[in-house]
UniProtKB/TrEMBL annotation:
Organism: Actinopolyspora saharensis
Transmembrane segments annotated in the record for this chain: 21-44, 50-74, 86-106, 112-129, 150-168, 174-194, 228-249, 255-274, 295-314, 326-345, 366-389
UniProt protein name: Membrane protein involved in the export of O-antigen and teichoic acid
Keyword list, A-Z: Membrane, Transmembrane, Transmembrane helix
Residues making up the signal peptide according to the UniProt record: none
Keyword flag Protein transport: no
Keyword Transmembrane: yes
Length: 418
């Protein structure tokens, strides 16, 4: 009987893991398809503008996930006080993100108000869609999440075929319009699948807002540090060199971007499981986190190496643009450093140690951004930028692992004194 139960639990874990990774794959495939069209049809300068705005969207999404979505994973989202406070936080973050998006789009692009308008709509749709997606993660309902993201992929591919035919040659405005279609499909499909209790009672309030903000501010800053650091590097390259140089950087990142599917899918599953165990009072063995770290690093190295080799051969033929091997392998090393630190960072987040994680990530970002500034200001080739950014990630692995082990030692000492 025990073995049957254990098999059932392991089966559900395996099923959730596969569904979680496949859902990330569907979302990433939708984004990757649009980026691939952009890389193949836009000039390097226009692709650089597209990449800057896309990086801003990723940064806004990270802030929203950190402040709102991770909040209703860690806190009780069905409690009226927490629920209304999370709604308030969502409105504040969304308003600030839309304002920043419009300002940046108006500054970096010469395509006029249409791009700013479409981009603002995309930001709203994307943040709402991500909120719905994260509710499925909090419910540990990865089957529904997969259905939701497959719908997004289908609509995005359909829009990618139809929208350019209606509005002419692809440009950043048209491509962001395609992404709007996919985000809207994600939102609607998610709302249809969610039960009524998840969709009701969405009124703003502030009763528990100080408690939520105490966690969420630090978590949002921590979650946004990495994408915002990359955005800062891109803006630095664009202002110091050119948007075409940003295009070169982004083209190399794009070809190994599918590795992020594996990392993000694993992160979503880890956070949901670890947070559930934290609420139930179960202790975790750091050896399990170490094993997760080794598995993730191995998978990232293998997948990244295969993608890099394939891209270096196929990119000149498919995209008509050559790739620098040092640049591509630098992005692979950046992903490896991210994967190595993910289990330990996720453990700290589940324990609500978001301020500690922020401090670790802040040093990580300072190291990467400082090295990037030196490289760009001295005129050194930008091909070394991803490798330098990876050095900050190495610090995150060391510091986050040390923090997790330190917390376990302190808990053991407290139990021993009792």
């Amino acid at each position: 009987m025990t073995s049957v139960r254990r098999g059932g639990v392991l089966g559900r874990l395996a099923g959730d893991g596969v569904a979680g990774i496949l859902s990330q794959a569907a979302t990433a495939a939708a984004s990757f398809a649009v980026q691939l069209v952009a890389a193949g049809t836009l000039s390097l300068s226009d692709y650089g503008v597209f990449a800057l705005l896309l990086a801003t969207l990723v940064g806004a999404n990270a802030l929203h996930v950190g402040f709102v979505c991770d909040g209703f994973t860690v806190f009780d989202r069905h409690d009226a006080g927490y629920r209304s406070s999370l709604v308030t936080g969502a409105l504040l973050v969304m308003g600030l993100c839309v304002l920043g998006a419009v300002v940046l789009a108006s500054t970096v692009s010469r395509q006029g108000p249409w791009l700013s308008a479409v981009y603002a709509v995309l930001v709203v749709c994307r943040l709402l869609a991500e909120t719905v997606r994260r509710i499925f993660v909090a419910r540990v309902d990865f089957g529904a999440l997969l259905n939701n993201d497959l719908c997004c992929l289908a609509v995005t591919l359909l829009a990618l075929a139809v929208v350019p035919a209606l509005f002419g040659e692809p440009n950043p405005t048209v491509l962001f319009g395609v992404m709007c279609c996919g985000a809207l499909a994600t939102l609607l499909a998610g709302l249809v699948q969610l039960p009524r209790e998840e969709r009701g009672g969405l009124r703003p309030g502030v009763r528990e807002f100080p408690d939520v903000a105490g966690f969420a501010v630090w978590r949002a800053l921590q979650a946004g540090l990495r994408p915002l650091t990359l955005l800062a590097v891109r803006l630095l390259v664009a202002s110091t060199i050119s948007t075409a140089a940003v295009g070169v950087l982004e083209l190399a990142r794009l070809v190994v971007a599918p590795v992020q599917v594996l990392i993000n899918g694993s992160g979503s599953l880890l956070l949901g499981r670890i947070a559930a165990r934290e609420r139930s009072g179960d202790e975790r063995d750091p050896a399990v986190l170490g094993k997760a770290c080794r598995v993730l690093v191995f998978a990232t190295v293998v997948c990244g190496g295969v993608l890099a080799a394939a891209a270096l051969v196929l990119s000149p033929r498919v995209l008509g643009k050559p790739l620098d091997p040092v640049l591509v392998l630098g992005w692979v090393s950046y992903q490896v450093a991210w994967a190595a630190g993910l289990p330990y960072v996720t453990e700290l987040v589940a324990r609500r140690a978001s301020r500690r994680v922020f401090r670790i990530r802040f040093v990580d970002s300072l190291v990467g951004l400082g090295l990037a500034s030196v490289v760009v200001s001295t005129g050194t080739a930008v091909v070394v930028l991803p490798s330098l950014l990876a050095l900050g990630g190495v610090y995150t692995v060391y510091a986050a692992r040390s923090a997790v082990l330190g917390q376990r030692v302190r808990r053991a000492e407290e139990i021993g004194r009792c």
